[in-house]
Amino acid sequence: MQFLYPTFLYALAALAIPIIIHLFYFRRFKKVYFTNVKFLKEVKEETSARRKLRNLLVLMMRLLAIAALVMAFAQPFIPQDAEVQKGEKAVSVFVDNSFSMSALSEDVPLLEKAKQRARQIVSAYEVEDRFQILTNDFEGRHQRLVSKEDALSLIDELKISPAVKNLSRVATRQQQALNQSTTDNQAAYIISDFQKNITDLSEYRDTSIDINLIPLQAVQEKNIAIDSAWFDAPVQTINQTNPLLVKIRNYSNEDVENVRLSVGLDGQEKPEGSLKIPAGGSVIDTVNITILRTGWHEAKLTITDYPIQFDDSYYFSFNVAEKIDILVINENTPNKFLDAAFRGIGYFDLTNQPARNLEYSKFPDYQLIILNDVINISSGMSSELSQYVFNGGNVLVFPAQNANIDSYKNFLQTFPANQLEAFDKQDRTVSTLNFEEFIFKDVFEKRSPNMKLPVTQGNFKISNFSSRSEERLMRYRDGSSFLGKYESGQGNLYLCSAPLNTDFNDLVRNADIFIPMLYKMAISSSKDRKIAYVIGDEELLQADAQTANNEMVYKLKGKAEEFIPEQKVVASKVILGINNQISEAGYYNLFLNKDEILDKFAFNFNRQESNLAYFSLADLKSQLTNAKMAIIEANNNTDITQTIGERSRGVVLWRWCVILALIFLALEVLLLRLWKT
User: Fold this and answer.
1) Among 148, 224, 426, 558, which has the highest number of CB atoms less than 10 A from its own CB?
2) Environment class of residue 481 by beta-carbon count within 10 Å: exposed (0-12), middle (13-18) or buried (19+)?
3) Closest CA to 91 of 217, 186, 169, 17
4) DSSP letter, residue 529
5) What is the tens place of the pLDDT at every residue in 130-147?
6) CA separation for the pair 659, 297 (Å, rounded)
7) Residue 7 burial by CB count (10 A; 0-12/13-18/19+): exposed, middle or buried?
8) Which helix (H) or strand (E) holds 471?
9) What is the phi/psi pair of residue 23, to 5°?
10) Is residue 454 pLDDT above 50, yes or no?
């Protein structure tokens, strides 16, 4: 047994006080009157013996009561395995408030059980100790140490949050807060269900603080979730069928049937049938969306699944432009076949410009730029086109038969792409189309082996550098490239080895290939605009900048909140930082003036919490590679206050000392009142 405050033991000198009282008070004589003196000797002997015994017992009770009180102030304890720390303590308590904590633990949500555990931890410490209450939100007010009373108030305010953090990050944040304290007596507690997808404590290597894990066991739930969704085409077009791919995942260990999927578009909802999803697997379903108007659209995918529902909806948004702008750069006269191809579809707006008189500043206004029969690509044009592609544009090159090869080499080198070599006047036939690439994917309902393919009467040989990452869309019979694709930044360069002139190339006469090729090049992009974002991901948003006035402030507004994001204008784009200001799934409009929506972003809850797989107690123990980590085991009805106290101060005995002091004082009163002499 040891004492927390051993100097109080000097107060045992107070034991002399009852001894002195006994020696002087109980020796005073009292007169006793008897009616018959013959009994005097007998009564005197009997009374003296009983009084002496009673006085000794009273003295003993007083001594024991004083000794017990002194011991209580000295706070005796029986030390456990760890060394007991004395003085003020700094304590960090993490309460997992992610979506998985809304699952039931017997009859209450896990979060309520976690809050109860947090209160018990705080109650196990003294008033002078300091506390940090931390959650997945990593709020600023949770980054400092507060008093015991304030800590209990913060615990009462906790609620479910869409945020989720790996536990190694949590432990690091706890350490940072505890380092603010001036005391070396530090301890951290993590209260969680310890889902497998967030429990990475083996990654935390620091051993400067004690970390205590308090696992909570949920009733195992089955969960079906909409994982993600994306359009098959990078750009959505009006009056066309736009295939949307939806991935739905089954996180349970049983096959699930009749999962009903519905899609809502601009407030109108329709069912899309039911799905069967294998245990632990996923399916990708195709939803065909027909768009009847241009502008911004809000859409929502929904399944029915109980009781875990935060991942049963998936919000997304997209914009349908009123038109797609095409620029054709010509050496001489415009190509009549290009004009006919684009002007036949009202959705496209075609502009022809001569190569010697270009407005480079307007390049970003076009979705596709075609170089038709251009002989020489100047350094200025080369620089502007490469920057245009890098920022998300698409360029299609049909070189002139008498092209300046050196200027083309300098242009192609900036991507980098394979080089044009000598022009070869030889008849050649295209033999293969790449049906797996976006340009020709899903263009033909049936792939006929007798399909008529382009024939050329002359073409440039194309170099074949392995480092240039060419994706061949059409090949000649010898395997060389007729039409190749090169990704650069966010855009694409398409390079044809033959001029578009019908004297050398009959591609324009193959309408089944030529028209879909131009159409899909105009809407293609190597980097699609995201239709949805994840709440909590530290991802920057990007939109078209609308003004150069630095005094104008972009704002984001959701259904119930409006805020100013971090913003920075770079060239023609504005970069937006959210910084955890979004907490609800839904749509958020970007605007400068409330009457004009500049962009629309959809946000969904993080699906990391959808997988309700937890570490068992045995598996969790195997995760503890850090000697400073320990698990506090307790069932749902156990009060861990005493357990925490014993871990931090040993087996505390002062309460027993107080109880014994009260017992001894009560016995003294009984002796004095009931034992008559």
Assistant:
1) 224
2) buried
3) 186
4) P
5) 999 999 988 888 888 999
6) 72
7) exposed
8) strand 471-476
9) -70, -35
10) yes
Question: 252-261: long-range contacts (C-beta < 8 A, 24 or more apart)?
Answer: 252/222, 252/223, 252/224, 252/279, 252/280, 253/279, 253/280, 254/222, 254/279, 255/279, 256/222, 256/224, 259/224, 259/303, 259/304, 259/305, 260/303, 260/304, 261/285, 261/287, 261/301, 261/302, 261/303
Residue 77: pLDDT band with limits 50, 70, 90 = low
Is pLDDT above 80 for 22?
no
Q: What angle is formed at CA 514 by the lines to CA 461 and CA 516, rounded to 5 degrees? A: 125
**Residue that the structure tokens 């790996």 belong to:** 166
Mean pLDDT of the 163-189 span = 89
* Mean pLDDT rounded to a whole number for the chain: 85
Residues ≥6 apart with Cβ < 8 Å to 85: 184, 185, 648
CB-based burial label for 368 (10 Å; 0-12, 13-18, 19+) = buried
The label of the residue with tokens 């006035």 reads 549
**Which residues have a Cβ under 8 Å from the Cβ of 259 and sit 6 or more positions away?**
224, 248, 274, 275, 276, 277, 303, 304, 305
> What is the spatial distance between Cα 534 and Cα 530, in angstroms, rounded to a whole number?
11
Q: How many whole angstroms separate alpha carbon 574 and alpha carbon 555?
A: 12
Name 146's Cβ contacts closer than 8 Å, sequence gap at least 6: 130, 131, 132, 133, 154
Task: In whole angstroms, give the CA distance from residue 587 to residue 596.
Answer: 15
